């Protein structure tokens, strides 16, 4: 095996704090929204500071489970790259790369798929929901994408994976797959552990009973991190609340106002109690404006940096190319050893 590049040596020699290697991925499905930013991306920025070996992948192979035009997908890949960089992801502190540029992801997925039963995949709630949405004509890719997720993680012998509650089942499949492989071929893959961070669940501004989503048909429901100040003000002004003017945090009884408080809390770095206390005397109409201004202030530098990066396509492509080269240096020897263990090499 060739000696690791200086970039990899540097990454491994920095501080560790007990986290050996982190892997996480994000699909290129458009500009991240406020929920993506507060729920995942801010955590990614923090983790790159705390761990010596961090890989963040733009999982474009996963995005093929939902049909989209090639030109749209290519644009989305560069958009999410620019967005992550604008939010603080630093290619000098992590490996940021495009999944499909490291073919070992798909190749390992096939091998791991041969260790995975059909009934196990049929039990995933995401399959049941998406298959129903596609009129029971879900594709093989949609059915087996949890196996590809397992390959994404195990390919780098990752020890920790930041996940939301809705992804715990997928990580359990990865853990079980690692155990099955190790039982048959000897201890090889670490069994990765979940990093469950305090959930910052951002709800739709138009329907606080559901999560904020890029695919929401209501234009005013979702705040993109690149929205203009006027767009943000309008969306918060139109946010669903209730007929009580006082600002309180009661998710079960006042979901709309509580969603605003949760957003304000996460943006300002304050507890919900502190936010509510600061809002004494404000009615909900004025409070919407306060939250909007806090969001505008937080997102302004991100929006500006995103715009600058979008104009430098060659730089974005270079970041992804360099990241893929670094990731492949880690992935290739692992996959080569897997091939040897199973008898393919």
Question: What does the model show?
Answer:
This is Tryptophan--tRNA ligase, mitochondrial. This protein has 345 residues and is mainly α. Helices cover 55% and strands 6% of the residues. The strands form two sheets. The protein has a three-stranded parallel sheet with strand order 1-2-3. Strands 4-5 form a two-stranded parallel sheet. Strand 1 (22-26), helix 2 (34-50) and strand 2 form a beta-alpha-beta unit. It is globular.
For this entry, give a set of tags:
mainly alpha, Tryptophan--tRNA ligase, mitochondrial, ligase, 345 residues, two-stranded parallel ribbon, protein biosynthesis, ATP-binding
Number of helices: 14
Q: For the report, how would you describe the main beta sheet?
A: 3 strands, parallel
N-end to C-end Cα span:
15 Å
List the secondary-structure elements in sequence, H or E: HEHEHHEHHHHEHEHHHHH
In percent terms, what proportion of residues is strand? 5-15%
Helical content band:
55-70%
In total, how many beta strands?
A: 5
CA radius of gyration is 21 Å
**Please, what is the oligomeric state?**
single chain
> Regions with pLDDT < 50 over 5+ consecutive residues?
1-17
Mean pLDDT: 91
> What global shape is seen?
globular
Which secondary-structure class do the elements indicate?
mainly alpha
Strand order of the largest sheet: 1-2-3
């Amino acid at each position: 095996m060739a000696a690791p590049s200086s970039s990899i040596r540097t990454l491994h020699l920095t501080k560790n704090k007990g986290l050996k290697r982190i892997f996480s991925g994000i699909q290129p499905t458009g500009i991240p929204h406020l929920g993506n930013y507060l729920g995942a991306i801010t955590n990614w920025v923090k983790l790159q500071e705390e761990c010596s070996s961090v890989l963040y992948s733009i999982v474009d192979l996963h995005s093929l489970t939902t049909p989209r035009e090639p030109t749209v997908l290519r644009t989305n890949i560069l958009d999410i790259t620019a967005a992550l960089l604008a939010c603080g992801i630093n290619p000098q502190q992590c490996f940021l790369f495009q999944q499909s540029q490291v073919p070992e992801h798909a190749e390992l997925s096939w091998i791991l798929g041969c260790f995975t039963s059909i009934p196990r995949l049929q039990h995933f709630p995401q399959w049941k929901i998406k298959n129903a949405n596609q009129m029971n004509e879900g594709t093989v890719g949609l059915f087996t994408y949890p196996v590809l997720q397992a390959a994404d993680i195990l390919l780098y012998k990752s020890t920790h994976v930041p996940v939301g509650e809705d992804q715990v089942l997928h990580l359990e499949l990865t853990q079980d797959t690692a155990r099955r492989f190790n039982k048959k071929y000897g201890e090889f893959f670490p069994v990765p552990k979940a990093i469950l961070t305090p959930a910052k669940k951002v709800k739709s501004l138009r329907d606080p009973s559901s999560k904020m989503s890029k695919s929401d048909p209501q234009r005013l429901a979702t705040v993109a991190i690149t929205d203009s100040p006027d767009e943000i003000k309008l969306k918060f002004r139109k946010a669903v609340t209730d007929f009580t003017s006082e600002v309180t945090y009661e998710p079960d009884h006042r979901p709309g106002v509580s969603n605003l408080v949760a957003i304000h809390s996460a943006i300002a770095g304050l507890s919900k109690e502190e936010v509510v206390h600061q809002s004494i005397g404000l009615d909900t109409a004025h409070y919407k404006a306060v939250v909007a201004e806090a969001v505008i202030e937080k997102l302004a530098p991100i929006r500006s940096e995103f715009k600058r990066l979008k104009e430098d396509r060659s730089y974005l492509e270079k970041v992804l190319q360099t990241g893929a080269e670094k990731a492949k240096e880690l992935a290739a020897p692992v996959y080569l050893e897997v091939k040897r263990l199973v008898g393919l090499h």
